[in-house]
Amino acid sequence: MNTLDQTHDPDLHSWVSSANAADTDFPIQNLPFGRMRRPGDDWRIGVAIGDQVLDLKLAAGKSGWPQDVRPLLAPLAAGDLNAFMAMGAPAGRKLRGTLSRALAVGGAQDELASCIAPQSEFEFGVPCKIGDYTDFYVGIHHATAVGKLFRPDNPLLPNYKWVPIGYHGRASSVVASGTPIKRPQGQIAPGAGNVPSFGPTRRLDLELELGFLVGQGNALGSPVPIGQAEEHLFGVALFNDWSARDIQAWEYQPLGPFLSKNFASTLSPWVVTMEALTPFRAPLARSAGDPPLLPYLDDAANRAGGALDIELEVRLQTAAMRAAGLAPVTLSRSNAAQAAYWTPAQLIAHHTVNGCNLQPGDLLGSGTLSGPERAQAGSLLELTMGGAEPFALPGGEQRTFLQDGDTLILAGHCARPGARRIGFGFCVGTVTAA
């Protein structure tokens, strides 16, 4: 795993003044990557710094970079984050250190100031090309709560604490934050007449997740040992795996989710690198009575610090709230380290143990990251007890599941004494009619 270095120094300041604000998601200690363009222009890769962005296409053309850094900037200048991710973790650490020095007070302000522009001037897309997408089910409190709704006497199936559960999703419908989410249609379970109905979902839900992006891949037939797994992880983004719960309930047996999940999954624009998350590691949470880890999923470093201490939040703003000038309301808050039963490294080790070859830009969803309390629910299915208990909103509205015009906002940040607060930005989607 990564170790603390000068890029994590909480006293480090940038010549980009907005990066020094206490509440910014993007201080110089963060430096996440995103894919962006101005209207009518080509896509390019940038690094967030405060409320600004460093355009790496422009920056790569400057003369002050060390000779061994220029090859690292080349794919980024070409707008290809995947090619940079394929270079591996050492390349990422080297470029991070170089960018940190260049953007720090006393750095390359004279040369790079012309490469900085407000984030508000750009459209942001999915950060990289998503080749494949696997959704896991690491949130033990979510799995337990959902299990209680359908199997009160046996909420967790016997395999849950032995094996990271996952299924293969649809990469083509992973969309950028801000993309409208069209209400899906499908078959819904039969009522009294024993014939399924067809139409728009009436139980549209969110799923509060993290998306882990693979960096360097592995060869087909070559499992990644857990002690090396984090070298194959590039970074983390916020992820909303939208779900049509009524369609899901009818289709998921015996092969699992299908049309209820693959209509849209929203990824936030900024990828926070694993290096930036170094100060925010946490031990793998296990209870005394839990079964032992199988050797391929066990590693001393992973047990000591394989989890990520990320505070997560779900916000909702309805169309009526927007019209009335009411701000989004917070529905729930949770913490990834407390919610996740499996670590990102364990997901990589398990995904590849059979010889499966991961590739740069592959996306691993965490699954819903709920806490143990209702106020920490990462889905409306949990928050409303399967739709049985609506919740109240400002202006007198109520919700069980999402209605047309509702905007969902996911947020996340890391904060600890002795470390600079860093954030993930927002993951946003507005529901539109079928």
SSE arrangement:
Elements: E1 33-37, E2 44-49, E3 52-55, H1 56-60, H2 70-77, H3 81-85, H4 89-103, H5 109-112, E4 116-118, E5 123-124, E6 133-136, H6 140-150, E7 166-168, E8 174-176, E9 181-182, E10 185-188, E11 197-200, E12 204-205, E13 208-214, E14 233-240, E15 243-244, H7 245-251, E16 265-267, E17 272-273, E18 281-282, H8 300-305, E19 307-308, E20 311-317, H9 319-323, E21 329-335, H10 336-339, H11 344-352, E22 363-365, H12 380-383, E23 391-392, E24 398-399, E25 407-414, E26 422-432
Q: Can you characterise this structure?
A:
The protein is an alpha+beta fold. The mean pLDDT is 97. Helices cover 19% and strands 25% of the residues. The strands form seven sheets. Strands 6, 7, 8, 13, 14, 16, 17 and 22 form an eight-stranded mixed beta sheet that branches. A five-stranded antiparallel beta sheet has the order 4-3-2-1-5. The protein contains twelve helices and 26 strands. The chain has two domains: 6-124, Roll (SH3 type barrels), CATH 2.30.30.230; 133-432, Fumarylacetoacetase-like, C-terminal domain (Fumarylacetoacetate hydrolase, domain 2, Alpha-Beta Complex), CATH 3.90.850.10. It is globular.
Question: Quick recap of the structure?
Answer:
The protein has helices spanning 56-60, 70-77, 81-85, 89-103, 109-112, 140-150, 245-251, 300-305, 319-323, 336-339, 344-352, 380-383, and strands at residues 33-37, 44-49, 52-55, 116-118, 123-124, 133-136, 166-168, 174-176, 181-182, 185-188, 197-200, 204-205, 208-214, 233-240, 243-244, 265-267, 272-273, 281-282, 307-308, 311-317, 329-335, 363-365, 391-392, 398-399, 407-414, 422-432.
